Amino acid sequence: MILHVNPASGVPLYLQIQSQVKQAVSAGALKPGDALPSVRKLAADLRINPNTVARAYLDLDRDGVLRSVPGGGTFVADGQPGLLKAERLRRLRPHARQVAVEGTQLRLTADEILKLVQEELDSLGEPR
Amino acid sequence: MNAAEGASFNDQAIWTEGLKKSYKGLHAVNGLDLRVPRGAVYGFLGRNGAGKTTTIRTLLGLARATAGAARVLGMDIDRHRLAILERTAFVGEHKILYDNFTALDMVRFTSAFYPQWSHEMVERCARQLEVPMRQRFAKLSKGNRAKVWLLLALAQNAELLILDEPTTGLDPVANDAFLKLLVEDHAAHSRTVFFSSHNLAEIEHVADWVGILDRGRMLLEARLEDIREHFRLVIAAGRGLPAAVSEHIAAVAQSGEFTRYVVTRDAEAFASRLRQQGAAVTEVSPLSLREVFLELLRKEQEESHVPVEMLA
Known about the structure:
The complex is a heterodimer.
Chain A: H1 13-26, E1 35-36, H2 39-46, H3 50-62, E2 66-69, E3 73-76, H4 85-105, H5 110-124
Antiparallel strand pairs in A: 1-3, 2-3
Chain B: E1 12-23, E2 26-37, E3 41-46, H1 52-59, E4 67-72, E5 75-76, H2 81-87, E6 88-91, H3 103-111, H4 119-129, H5 142-155, E7 160-164, H6 172-189, E8 192-196, H7 200-206, E9 209-214, E10 217-223, H8 224-230, E11 232-237, E12 249-255, E13 258-263, H9 267-276, E14 280-286, H10 289-298
Parallel strand pairs in B: 3-8, 3-9, 6-7, 7-8
Antiparallel strand pairs in B: 1-2, 1-4, 4-5, 9-10, 11-13, 11-14, 12-13
Helix pairs in contact in B: 4-5, 4-6
Protein backbone atom coordinates (compact mmCIF):
# COMPACT_ATOMS: atom_id res chain seq x y z
CA MET A 1 0.00 0.00 0.00
CA ILE A 2 1.38 3.38 -0.97
CA LEU A 3 0.47 6.24 1.33
CA HIS A 4 1.72 9.72 0.83
CA VAL A 5 1.42 12.72 3.13
CA ASN A 6 2.06 16.38 2.52
CA PRO A 7 2.95 18.08 5.82
CA ALA A 8 2.67 21.57 4.29
CA SER A 9 -0.84 21.18 2.88
CA GLY A 10 -2.72 22.53 5.89
CA VAL A 11 -4.66 19.29 6.28
CA PRO A 12 -3.87 17.40 9.51
CA LEU A 13 -1.65 14.42 8.74
CA TYR A 14 -3.88 11.94 10.56
CA LEU A 15 -6.78 13.04 8.33
CA GLN A 16 -4.62 12.62 5.23
CA ILE A 17 -3.79 9.06 6.28
CA GLN A 18 -7.39 8.30 7.17
CA SER A 19 -8.81 9.54 3.90
CA GLN A 20 -6.22 7.64 1.85
CA VAL A 21 -6.92 4.40 3.70
CA LYS A 22 -10.67 4.92 3.29
CA GLN A 23 -10.30 5.59 -0.40
CA ALA A 24 -8.14 2.49 -0.83
CA VAL A 25 -10.81 0.42 0.96
CA SER A 26 -13.66 2.02 -1.01
CA ALA A 27 -11.84 1.40 -4.27
CA GLY A 28 -11.13 -2.21 -3.34
CA ALA A 29 -7.36 -1.71 -3.36
CA LEU A 30 -7.41 -2.85 0.27
CA LYS A 31 -9.61 -5.84 1.01
CA PRO A 32 -11.03 -7.13 4.29
CA GLY A 33 -8.33 -8.98 6.16
CA ASP A 34 -5.44 -7.18 4.45
CA ALA A 35 -2.72 -6.21 6.93
CA LEU A 36 -1.60 -2.61 7.32
CA PRO A 37 1.95 -1.64 8.24
CA SER A 38 2.59 -1.24 11.95
CA VAL A 39 2.50 2.25 13.47
CA ARG A 40 6.27 2.21 13.75
CA LYS A 41 6.82 1.05 10.20
CA LEU A 42 4.44 3.54 8.63
CA ALA A 43 5.79 6.42 10.75
CA ALA A 44 9.35 5.57 9.77
CA ASP A 45 8.43 5.15 6.09
CA LEU A 46 6.66 8.51 6.00
CA ARG A 47 9.16 10.18 8.41
CA ILE A 48 6.30 11.43 10.54
CA ASN A 49 5.55 11.38 14.23
CA PRO A 50 4.35 7.93 15.40
CA ASN A 51 1.63 9.57 17.51
CA THR A 52 0.11 10.88 14.29
CA VAL A 53 -0.08 7.41 12.73
CA ALA A 54 -1.44 5.95 15.97
CA ARG A 55 -4.19 8.58 16.02
CA ALA A 56 -5.15 7.86 12.39
CA TYR A 57 -5.35 4.11 13.10
CA LEU A 58 -7.35 4.69 16.27
CA ASP A 59 -9.95 6.76 14.42
CA LEU A 60 -10.11 4.27 11.56
CA ASP A 61 -10.65 1.51 14.09
CA ARG A 62 -13.43 3.51 15.75
CA ASP A 63 -15.05 4.13 12.34
CA GLY A 64 -15.03 0.41 11.67
CA VAL A 65 -12.60 0.66 8.76
CA LEU A 66 -9.75 -1.13 10.50
CA ARG A 67 -9.59 -3.78 13.16
CA SER A 68 -6.65 -3.83 15.56
CA VAL A 69 -5.61 -7.08 17.18
CA PRO A 70 -3.75 -6.33 20.42
CA GLY A 71 -0.14 -7.27 19.79
CA GLY A 72 -1.07 -8.77 16.45
CA GLY A 73 -1.26 -5.92 13.98
CA THR A 74 -3.88 -3.90 12.18
CA PHE A 75 -6.16 -5.23 9.46
CA VAL A 76 -8.89 -4.00 7.16
CA ALA A 77 -12.19 -4.79 8.89
CA ASP A 78 -14.80 -7.12 7.40
CA GLY A 79 -17.11 -4.29 6.46
CA GLN A 80 -20.47 -4.16 4.73
CA PRO A 81 -20.34 -4.60 0.98
CA GLY A 82 -20.11 -1.30 -0.85
CA LEU A 83 -19.09 1.95 0.75
CA LEU A 84 -18.38 2.21 4.43
CA LYS A 85 -20.96 3.90 6.58
CA ALA A 86 -18.66 6.75 7.54
CA GLU A 87 -17.83 7.32 3.89
CA ARG A 88 -21.50 7.29 2.89
CA LEU A 89 -22.27 9.83 5.61
CA ARG A 90 -19.36 11.96 4.50
CA ARG A 91 -20.71 12.08 0.96
CA LEU A 92 -24.21 13.05 2.04
CA ARG A 93 -23.10 15.72 4.47
CA PRO A 94 -22.71 18.59 1.96
CA HIS A 95 -26.32 18.02 0.79
CA ALA A 96 -27.56 17.99 4.37
CA ARG A 97 -25.66 21.21 5.02
CA GLN A 98 -27.23 22.82 1.97
CA VAL A 99 -30.73 21.88 3.13
CA ALA A 100 -29.96 23.29 6.57
CA VAL A 101 -28.54 26.56 5.24
CA GLU A 102 -31.26 27.19 2.67
CA GLY A 103 -34.02 26.19 5.05
CA THR A 104 -32.72 28.63 7.63
CA GLN A 105 -32.44 31.39 5.06
CA LEU A 106 -36.10 30.77 4.14
CA ARG A 107 -36.88 31.22 7.85
CA LEU A 108 -38.18 27.70 8.34
CA THR A 109 -37.85 26.13 11.79
CA ALA A 110 -35.74 23.04 12.43
CA ASP A 111 -38.94 21.00 12.89
CA GLU A 112 -40.32 22.18 9.58
CA ILE A 113 -37.11 21.29 7.76
CA LEU A 114 -36.92 17.85 9.38
CA LYS A 115 -40.59 17.24 8.57
CA LEU A 116 -39.93 18.07 4.93
CA VAL A 117 -37.04 15.60 4.77
CA GLN A 118 -39.20 13.00 6.48
CA GLU A 119 -41.96 13.49 3.89
CA GLU A 120 -39.46 12.96 1.11
CA LEU A 121 -38.20 9.80 2.78
CA ASP A 122 -41.77 8.57 3.20
CA SER A 123 -42.55 9.24 -0.46
CA LEU A 124 -39.66 6.92 -1.40
CA GLY A 125 -41.47 4.16 0.43
CA GLU A 126 -38.20 2.99 1.95
CA PRO A 127 -38.04 1.70 5.50
CA ARG A 128 -36.21 4.12 7.79
CA MET B 1 -2.07 11.85 24.62
CA ASN B 2 -0.18 15.00 25.51
CA ALA B 3 -2.18 17.74 27.13
CA ALA B 4 -0.14 20.82 27.93
CA GLU B 5 -3.20 22.67 29.11
CA GLY B 6 -3.56 22.63 32.85
CA ALA B 7 -0.72 20.16 33.25
CA SER B 8 1.78 20.51 36.06
CA PHE B 9 5.53 20.64 35.54
CA ASN B 10 5.73 16.94 36.32
CA ASP B 11 3.87 16.12 33.10
CA GLN B 12 6.35 18.21 31.17
CA ALA B 13 9.78 17.07 30.06
CA ILE B 14 10.75 20.74 30.01
CA TRP B 15 8.92 23.46 31.88
CA THR B 16 9.98 27.07 32.27
CA GLU B 17 8.21 30.11 33.61
CA GLY B 18 9.48 33.64 33.15
CA LEU B 19 12.96 32.31 32.40
CA LYS B 20 15.52 35.05 31.86
CA LYS B 21 19.16 35.08 30.90
CA SER B 22 20.92 38.40 30.45
CA TYR B 23 24.43 39.20 29.36
CA LYS B 24 25.65 42.69 30.16
CA GLY B 25 22.16 44.16 29.94
CA LEU B 26 21.20 42.18 26.82
CA HIS B 27 18.21 39.95 27.39
CA ALA B 28 19.00 36.79 25.41
CA VAL B 29 16.15 34.92 27.09
CA ASN B 30 13.51 37.35 28.24
CA GLY B 31 10.68 35.83 30.26
CA LEU B 32 10.34 32.52 28.45
CA ASP B 33 7.42 30.16 29.15
CA LEU B 34 8.19 26.79 27.62
CA ARG B 35 6.03 23.65 27.94
CA VAL B 36 7.37 20.47 26.36
CA PRO B 37 5.04 17.53 27.08
CA ARG B 38 6.68 14.22 27.90
CA GLY B 39 6.93 12.01 24.84
CA ALA B 40 6.65 14.90 22.40
CA VAL B 41 8.86 15.62 19.45
CA TYR B 42 9.11 19.37 19.91
CA GLY B 43 10.47 21.69 17.25
CA PHE B 44 12.06 24.79 18.78
CA LEU B 45 12.05 27.52 16.15
CA GLY B 46 13.24 31.05 15.86
CA ARG B 47 15.44 33.34 13.85
CA ASN B 48 19.17 33.56 14.41
CA GLY B 49 19.73 35.28 17.73
CA ALA B 50 16.20 34.62 18.98
CA GLY B 51 17.67 32.94 22.07
CA LYS B 52 17.37 29.23 21.19
CA THR B 53 20.92 28.24 22.02
CA THR B 54 21.00 30.33 25.19
CA THR B 55 17.74 28.68 26.30
CA ILE B 56 19.20 25.22 25.73
CA ARG B 57 22.44 26.08 27.52
CA THR B 58 20.47 27.42 30.48
CA LEU B 59 18.28 24.31 30.66
CA LEU B 60 21.39 22.12 30.79
CA GLY B 61 23.07 24.22 33.45
CA LEU B 62 25.80 25.39 31.04
CA ALA B 63 24.65 28.95 31.73
CA ARG B 64 23.01 30.24 34.90
CA ALA B 65 19.53 31.76 34.62
CA THR B 66 19.22 35.41 35.63
CA ALA B 67 15.60 35.01 36.77
CA GLY B 68 12.59 32.76 36.48
CA ALA B 69 12.07 29.05 37.07
CA ALA B 70 12.88 26.00 34.98
CA ARG B 71 12.50 22.26 35.39
CA VAL B 72 13.85 19.49 33.21
CA LEU B 73 12.23 16.04 33.70
CA GLY B 74 10.58 17.54 36.77
CA MET B 75 13.89 18.61 38.32
CA ASP B 76 14.85 22.18 39.17
CA ILE B 77 17.76 23.24 36.93
CA ASP B 78 19.71 24.93 39.72
CA ARG B 79 19.50 22.12 42.26
CA HIS B 80 19.69 19.01 40.07
CA ARG B 81 22.18 19.89 37.38
CA LEU B 82 24.03 16.58 37.41
CA ALA B 83 20.91 14.43 37.55
CA ILE B 84 19.54 16.34 34.57
CA LEU B 85 22.73 15.81 32.57
CA GLU B 86 22.68 12.10 33.40
CA ARG B 87 19.19 11.64 31.99
CA THR B 88 19.52 13.97 29.01
CA ALA B 89 21.45 13.49 25.79
CA PHE B 90 22.60 16.64 24.09
CA VAL B 91 23.95 17.60 20.70
CA GLY B 92 25.28 21.15 20.77
CA GLU B 93 25.50 23.78 18.12
CA HIS B 94 29.25 23.38 17.72
CA LYS B 95 30.04 19.79 16.84
CA ILE B 96 33.53 19.66 18.35
CA LEU B 97 35.30 16.50 19.52
CA TYR B 98 38.89 15.47 20.20
CA ASP B 99 40.76 15.74 16.91
CA ASN B 100 42.77 12.56 17.37
CA PHE B 101 39.83 10.37 18.33
CA THR B 102 37.84 8.25 15.91
CA ALA B 103 34.10 7.66 16.34
CA LEU B 104 34.96 4.19 17.68
CA ASP B 105 37.26 5.74 20.30
CA MET B 106 34.48 8.12 21.29
CA VAL B 107 32.00 5.24 21.62
CA ARG B 108 34.41 3.34 23.91
CA PHE B 109 35.10 6.50 25.92
CA THR B 110 31.51 7.73 26.19
CA SER B 111 29.69 4.43 26.73
CA ALA B 112 31.40 3.95 30.10
CA PHE B 113 29.51 6.94 31.51
CA TYR B 114 26.03 5.76 30.56
CA PRO B 115 24.46 2.66 32.14
CA GLN B 116 21.67 2.70 29.53
CA TRP B 117 24.11 2.78 26.61
CA SER B 118 22.82 0.94 23.53
CA HIS B 119 25.44 -0.78 21.38
CA GLU B 120 22.65 -1.88 19.10
CA MET B 121 21.85 1.79 18.45
CA VAL B 122 25.52 2.51 17.71
CA GLU B 123 25.46 -0.18 15.03
CA ARG B 124 22.14 0.93 13.62
CA CYS B 125 23.24 4.58 13.44
CA ALA B 126 26.59 3.70 11.93
CA ARG B 127 24.86 1.63 9.24
CA GLN B 128 21.89 3.89 8.44
CA LEU B 129 23.75 7.19 8.63
CA GLU B 130 26.92 5.73 7.04
CA VAL B 131 29.15 7.07 9.80
CA PRO B 132 32.88 6.67 9.17
CA MET B 133 33.74 4.97 12.46
CA ARG B 134 37.51 4.61 11.99
CA GLN B 135 38.49 8.05 10.74
CA ARG B 136 40.06 10.60 13.04
CA PHE B 137 37.74 13.44 13.91
CA ALA B 138 40.09 16.09 12.51
CA LYS B 139 39.67 14.56 9.06
CA LEU B 140 35.87 14.46 9.06
CA SER B 141 33.62 16.78 7.06
CA LYS B 142 31.06 18.97 8.83
CA GLY B 143 28.27 16.53 7.93
CA ASN B 144 30.19 13.52 9.23
CA ARG B 145 30.96 15.30 12.49
CA ALA B 146 27.26 15.94 12.95
CA LYS B 147 26.60 12.23 12.35
CA VAL B 148 29.11 11.18 15.03
CA TRP B 149 27.43 13.52 17.50
CA LEU B 150 23.99 12.18 16.66
CA LEU B 151 25.21 8.61 17.07
CA LEU B 152 26.70 9.37 20.48
CA ALA B 153 23.51 11.11 21.59
CA LEU B 154 21.05 8.46 20.38
CA ALA B 155 23.10 5.62 21.87
CA GLN B 156 22.84 7.13 25.36
CA ASN B 157 19.23 5.96 25.48
CA ALA B 158 18.32 9.05 27.50
CA GLU B 159 14.82 10.07 28.55
CA LEU B 160 15.26 13.42 26.89
CA LEU B 161 17.14 14.23 23.72
CA ILE B 162 18.07 17.88 23.21
CA LEU B 163 19.39 18.67 19.76
CA ASP B 164 20.60 22.12 18.76
CA GLU B 165 20.52 22.34 14.97
CA PRO B 166 21.31 18.63 14.63
CA THR B 167 21.03 18.38 10.86
CA THR B 168 23.15 21.36 9.85
CA GLY B 169 25.75 20.11 7.40
CA LEU B 170 23.95 16.88 6.53
CA ASP B 171 23.25 16.26 2.85
CA PRO B 172 19.60 15.52 1.92
CA VAL B 173 20.09 11.73 1.91
CA ALA B 174 21.82 11.73 5.30
CA ASN B 175 19.18 14.15 6.60
CA ASP B 176 16.42 11.80 5.48
CA ALA B 177 18.21 8.81 7.04
CA PHE B 178 18.50 10.74 10.30
CA LEU B 179 14.78 11.59 10.35
CA LYS B 180 13.90 7.94 9.74
CA LEU B 181 16.20 6.89 12.57
CA LEU B 182 14.70 9.52 14.88
CA VAL B 183 11.12 8.44 14.13
CA GLU B 184 11.94 4.73 14.57
CA ASP B 185 13.69 5.48 17.82
CA HIS B 186 10.82 7.65 19.03
CA ALA B 187 8.25 4.99 18.15
CA ALA B 188 10.20 2.37 20.05
CA HIS B 189 11.13 4.33 23.17
CA SER B 190 8.85 7.39 23.16
CA ARG B 191 11.58 9.52 24.66
CA THR B 192 11.07 13.27 24.47
CA VAL B 193 12.92 14.98 21.64
CA PHE B 194 13.49 18.72 21.81
CA PHE B 195 15.23 20.12 18.79
CA SER B 196 15.97 23.44 17.23
CA SER B 197 16.22 23.74 13.50
CA HIS B 198 15.98 26.21 10.66
CA ASN B 199 14.69 23.47 8.42
CA LEU B 200 10.95 24.02 8.77
CA ALA B 201 10.12 21.21 6.35
CA GLU B 202 11.84 18.62 8.55
CA ILE B 203 10.17 19.99 11.69
CA GLU B 204 6.84 19.89 9.91
CA HIS B 205 7.42 16.19 9.23
CA VAL B 206 8.60 14.75 12.51
CA ALA B 207 7.43 17.15 15.21
CA ASP B 208 4.07 17.05 16.97
CA TRP B 209 4.65 20.28 18.92
CA VAL B 210 6.31 23.52 17.90
CA GLY B 211 7.37 26.62 19.76
CA ILE B 212 8.36 29.79 17.96
CA LEU B 213 10.77 31.97 19.90
CA ASP B 214 11.39 35.62 19.24
CA ARG B 215 13.70 37.90 21.21
CA GLY B 216 13.83 35.51 24.10
CA ARG B 217 10.06 35.11 24.44
CA MET B 218 7.60 32.49 23.26
CA LEU B 219 5.62 33.92 20.38
CA LEU B 220 3.58 30.80 19.73
CA GLU B 221 3.47 27.31 21.19
CA ALA B 222 1.07 24.84 19.61
CA ARG B 223 0.41 21.32 18.47
CA LEU B 224 1.32 21.04 14.81
CA GLU B 225 -1.97 19.28 14.01
CA ASP B 226 -3.82 22.23 15.59
CA ILE B 227 -1.96 24.59 13.30
CA ARG B 228 -2.98 22.50 10.30
CA GLU B 229 -6.56 22.09 11.44
CA HIS B 230 -7.39 25.51 12.86
CA PHE B 231 -4.86 28.15 11.82
CA ARG B 232 -6.00 30.15 8.82
CA LEU B 233 -4.74 33.13 6.90
CA VAL B 234 -7.62 35.59 6.54
CA ILE B 235 -7.23 38.52 4.18
CA ALA B 236 -9.86 41.25 4.22
CA ALA B 237 -10.32 44.60 2.53
CA GLY B 238 -12.10 47.43 4.31
CA ARG B 239 -11.71 50.33 6.64
CA GLY B 240 -11.58 50.32 10.43
CA LEU B 241 -10.94 46.58 10.75
CA PRO B 242 -9.53 45.19 14.01
CA ALA B 243 -5.77 45.66 14.03
CA ALA B 244 -4.73 44.21 17.38
CA VAL B 245 -3.42 40.78 18.28
CA SER B 246 -5.88 39.01 20.58
CA GLU B 247 -6.68 35.57 21.94
CA HIS B 248 -7.43 33.98 18.58
CA ILE B 249 -5.46 36.36 16.36
CA ALA B 250 -1.74 35.57 16.39
CA ALA B 251 -0.66 38.20 13.88
CA VAL B 252 -2.08 41.22 12.06
CA ALA B 253 -0.49 43.14 9.22
CA GLN B 254 -2.09 46.08 7.46
CA SER B 255 -1.15 47.67 4.19
CA GLY B 256 -3.49 50.13 2.53
CA GLU B 257 -7.00 48.71 2.30
CA PHE B 258 -5.91 45.17 3.11
CA THR B 259 -5.49 43.50 6.47
CA ARG B 260 -3.88 40.04 6.88
CA TYR B 261 -4.70 37.99 9.95
CA VAL B 262 -3.32 34.72 11.28
CA VAL B 263 -6.38 33.34 13.05
CA THR B 264 -5.77 30.45 15.41
CA ARG B 265 -9.35 29.23 15.89
CA ASP B 266 -12.84 29.60 14.35
CA ALA B 267 -11.56 31.41 11.28
CA GLU B 268 -14.90 31.12 9.45
CA ALA B 269 -16.74 32.82 12.32
CA PHE B 270 -14.10 35.55 12.38
CA ALA B 271 -14.50 36.06 8.61
CA SER B 272 -18.29 36.32 9.04
CA ARG B 273 -17.85 39.03 11.67
CA LEU B 274 -15.57 40.97 9.31
CA ARG B 275 -18.20 40.70 6.58
CA GLN B 276 -20.84 42.00 8.97
CA GLN B 277 -18.62 45.04 9.50
CA GLY B 278 -18.73 45.62 5.76
CA ALA B 279 -15.34 44.14 4.89
CA ALA B 280 -14.70 42.06 1.78
CA VAL B 281 -12.98 38.84 2.85
CA THR B 282 -10.78 37.80 -0.06
CA GLU B 283 -9.13 34.75 1.44
CA VAL B 284 -9.45 32.14 4.18
CA SER B 285 -6.75 29.53 3.65
CA PRO B 286 -4.64 27.07 5.61
CA LEU B 287 -1.01 27.88 6.41
CA SER B 288 2.10 25.76 6.26
CA LEU B 289 4.49 25.99 9.20
CA ARG B 290 6.80 28.11 7.06
CA GLU B 291 3.98 30.54 6.32
CA VAL B 292 3.00 30.76 10.00
CA PHE B 293 6.62 31.46 10.86
CA LEU B 294 6.93 34.21 8.25
CA GLU B 295 3.58 35.80 9.09
CA LEU B 296 4.46 35.94 12.79
CA LEU B 297 7.97 37.27 12.35
CA ARG B 298 7.67 39.44 9.28
CA LYS B 299 6.21 42.44 11.08
CA GLU B 300 9.03 42.28 13.61
CA GLN B 301 11.65 42.70 10.93
CA GLU B 302 11.63 46.48 10.73
CA GLU B 303 12.54 46.91 14.37
CA SER B 304 16.10 46.52 15.62
CA HIS B 305 17.28 43.03 16.38
CA VAL B 306 20.46 42.28 18.28
CA PRO B 307 21.92 38.78 17.87
CA VAL B 308 22.78 38.21 21.53
CA GLU B 309 23.40 34.52 20.96
CA MET B 310 26.88 35.40 19.77
CA LEU B 311 27.77 36.61 23.24
CA ALA B 312 26.92 33.30 24.93
